[in-house]
């Protein structure tokens, strides 16, 4: 119960911070800029969403399948190698990835998508591994003993029971991705970073916040949508775990 | 029905070889419950898991229904054998109905047949089919979960069941209750069951035959009574305990003894007082002896299920058991 209260307190304080930022944005004249340039904002937001969705979907596909792949008994020995590689990859700052990738793929949004994709891999991969490895071994043993095939064990037992952890990884990665996508502007990838960096160079808090506020709203609404999706794909039988989180 | 021929399992770790199961020869008849009994690490679970090939056989053969399991398709073999484990292994992401219907679905039964089977199994387990249909394992108590585990193993109507300490994780009251249920169901279904246990009382209660193992070797394979009255070696004595003669009393009922007492029906109760205990003729002799020892006069009334007094039993009547083989008493039943 106290756990649930904690969650409540954190949620409320988060909302307070968001409202404070919105008020600040209002007084700095961000909304004036938005009202004056609705077309720009819409265009940049669309670009931002495109960057995030393409890179996230690719990252989910690759990271989840890689996670499934290296938890198969045959490839279990590669788990350490893959995890170390991914951990090292994660220590490279997103900005540095952009710079590195830029020298091969040139400027433009494909470079930005690649960098964002790379950056999202680890949280999803790590959670997929943890989720699948933490599925109670007695469940797998029972399934195998009852004559389930390896594919059935994966689809009916391992993935559904690991889904909570996997979805957690996806949510974390996508929300971080929304923020990181602002950097795409630096290599000509577009997105809401355009307004943020323009605002910074012009010392105009209004323009900067006109980019920042939509990013925040985008991140929150995507997280909310994913939360709803989570309720659909995670079995009610695991609900007890959900309540505790 | 199940034949172990010279079965061995050797684990190799580096240069070391560990023999988990050492040249076991064992035969289990159809419809018989054989309990594998022994301390942990004696190889009983390994041997059990070799039957549905969860563990490979190093040497020897296991035959189920006259067919070598090595020649059978692993998946088909496992689907034809019920499997129950201690941690119940219910799938937390599935409803109770889905859990129970896993094997019938894999066997490709049609919907209506699966549905009837579910209702049938739940009623057999003494659970309301509709109440539990849409519930999830975490909403059930340990005892209920284990019942679902047994029902799930029975779902495909397999002739053979493997049970790995199914009641081991339950509290003593629930455990005894489920053991009695198990006996009732087994009487009706007559499955061939291999049952792993480390609990001597459980083995005596449930097994038609008991196989005692110690560090991978089969010590003795016999009826519960033979094991108690003629333990083959010191290891067996050590495992079944020094109170084996008392344990033996749990195998017999009061009615088995009183039919051999001369003048049982004509005896009079010495003092009609509240202190004269009542013993049901369906009680085990152990329970009866315990009641008699607590009575100041050392005797008790024997009653049937309708509370009719059948006669009087005395502590001294237990002398009859000293040199008599219990099979002789049972023959009268």
UniProtKB/TrEMBL annotation, chain A:
Q: Which UniProt keywords apply?
A: Amino-acid transport, Membrane, Transmembrane, Transmembrane helix, Transport
Just give the chief location class. membrane
- SUPFAM superfamilies attached to this UniProt entry: MetI-like
Report domain ABC transmembrane type-1 positions: 45-226
Protein name, UniProt field: ABC transporter permease
For biological process, the GO terms are: amino acid transport; glycine betaine transport; transmembrane transport
Q: Which organism is it from?
A: Pontibacillus marinus BH030004 = DSM 16465
Q: Which GO terms describe its cellular component?
A: plasma membrane
Q: How does it sit in the membrane?
A: Multi-pass membrane protein
Family note: Belongs to the binding-protein-dependent transport system permease family. CysTW subfamily.
Query: Where's it found, cell-wise?
Result: Cell membrane
Q: Where are the transmembrane segments?
A: 12-35, 47-69, 81-101, 107-125, 162-187, 207-229
UniProtKB/TrEMBL annotation, chain B:
Keywords from UniProt, A to Z, are: ATP-binding, Nucleotide-binding, Transport
Q: Which reaction does it catalyse?
A: a quaternary ammonium(out) + ATP + H2O = a quaternary ammonium(in) + ADP + phosphate + H(+)
PROSITE patterns per the record?
ABC_TRANSPORTER_1, ABC_TRANSPORTER_2
Record carries keyword Plastid: no
> ABC transporter domain: which residues?
2-240
Q: Is the Transport keyword given for this protein?
A: yes
| Coiled-coil positions | none
| InterPro entries in alphabetical order | AAA+_ATPase (IPR003593), ABC_transporter-like_ATP-bd (IPR003439), ABC_transporter-like_CS (IPR017871), P-loop_NTPase (IPR027417)
Q: Which principal EC class is assigned to this enzyme?
A: translocase
List the molecular function annotations (GO) for this entry. Answer: ABC-type quaternary ammonium compound transporting activity; ATP binding; ATP hydrolysis activity
Pfam family for this entry, one: ABC_tran
Task: Give the Enzyme Commission number.
Answer: 7.6.2.9
Its assembly, as annotated, is: The complex is composed of two ATP-binding proteins (OpuCA), two transmembrane proteins (OpuCB and OpuCD) and a solute-binding protein (OpuCC).
Q: Which family does it belong to?
A: Belongs to the ABC transporter superfamily.
Q: What is this protein called?
A: Carnitine transport ATP-binding protein OpuCA
């Amino acid at each position: 119960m106290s756990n649930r209260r904690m969650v409540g307190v954190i949620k409320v304080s988060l909302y307070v911070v968001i409202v404070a930022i919105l008020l600040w944005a209002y007084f700095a004249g961000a909304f004036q800029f938005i009202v004056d340039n609705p077309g720009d904002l819409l265009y940049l937001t669309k670009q931002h969403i495109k960057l995030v969705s393409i890179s996230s979907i690719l990252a989910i596909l690759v990271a989840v399948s890689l996670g499934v792949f290296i938890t198969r008994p045959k490839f279990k020995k590669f788990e350490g190698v893959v995890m170390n590689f991914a951990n090292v990859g994660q220590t490279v700052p997103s900005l540095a990835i952009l710079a590195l990738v830029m020298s091969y793929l040139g400027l433009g949004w494909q470079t930005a998508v690649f960098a964002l994709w790379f950056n999202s891999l680890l949280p999803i991969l790590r959670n997929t591994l943890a989720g699948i490895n933490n599925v109670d071994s007695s469940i797998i043993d029972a399934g195998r003993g009852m004559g389930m095939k390896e594919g059935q064990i994966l689809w009916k037992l391992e993935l559904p029971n690991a889904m909570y952890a996997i979805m957690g990884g996806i949510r974390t990665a996508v929300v971080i991705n929304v923020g990181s996508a602002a950097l795409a502007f630096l290599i000509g990838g577009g997105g809401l970073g355009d307004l943020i960096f323009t605002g910074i160079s012009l010392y105009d808090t209004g323009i900067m916040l006109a980019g920042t506020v939509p990013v925040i709203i985008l991140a929150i609404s995507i997280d909310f949508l994913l939360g709803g999706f989570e309720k659909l794909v995670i079995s009610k039988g695991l609900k007890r775990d959900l309540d505790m989180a | 029905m199940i034949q172990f021929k010279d079965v061995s399992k050797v684990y190799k770790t580096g240069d070391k070889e560990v023999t988990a199961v050492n040249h076991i020869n064992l035969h289990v008849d159809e419809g018989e419950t054989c309990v594998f009994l022994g301390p942990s690490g004696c190889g009983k679970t390994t041997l059990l898991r070799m039957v549905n090939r969860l563990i490979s056989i190093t040497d020897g053969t296991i035959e189920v229904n006259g067919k070598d399991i090595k020649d059978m398709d692993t998946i088909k073999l496992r689907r034809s054998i019920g499997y129950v484990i201690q941690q119940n292994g219910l799938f937390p992401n599935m409803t109770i109905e889905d859990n129970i219907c896993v094997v019938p679905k894999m066997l490709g039964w049609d919907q209506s047949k699966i549905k009837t089977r579910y209702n049938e199994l739940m009623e057999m387990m003494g659970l309301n089919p509709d109440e539990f249909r849409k519930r999830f394992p975490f909403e059930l108590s340990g005892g209920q979960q284990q019942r679902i585990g047994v029902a799930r193993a029975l779902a495909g109507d397999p002739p053979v069941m493997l049970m790995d300490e199914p009641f081991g994780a339950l509290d003593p009251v629930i455990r005894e209750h489920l053991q009695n249920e198990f006996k009732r169901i087994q009487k009706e279904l007559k499955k061939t069951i291999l049952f792993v246990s480390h609990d001597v009382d459980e083995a005596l209660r449930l097994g038609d035959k008991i196989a005692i193992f110690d560090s991978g070797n089969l010590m003795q394979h016999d009826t519960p009574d033979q094991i108690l009255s003629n333990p083959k070696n010191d290891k067996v004595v050590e495992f079944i305990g020094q109170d084996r003669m008392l344990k033996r009393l749990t195998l017999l009922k009061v009615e088995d003894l009183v039919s051999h007492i001369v003048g049982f029906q004509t005896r009079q109760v010495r003092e009609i007082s509240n202190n004269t205990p009542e013993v049901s003729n369906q009680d085990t002799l152990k329970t009866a002896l315990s009641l008699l020892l607590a009575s100041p006069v050392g005797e008790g009334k024997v009653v049937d299920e309708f509370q009719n007094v059948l006669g009087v039993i005395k502590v001294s009547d237990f002398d009859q058991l000293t040199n008599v083989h219990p099979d002789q008493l049972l023959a009268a039943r």
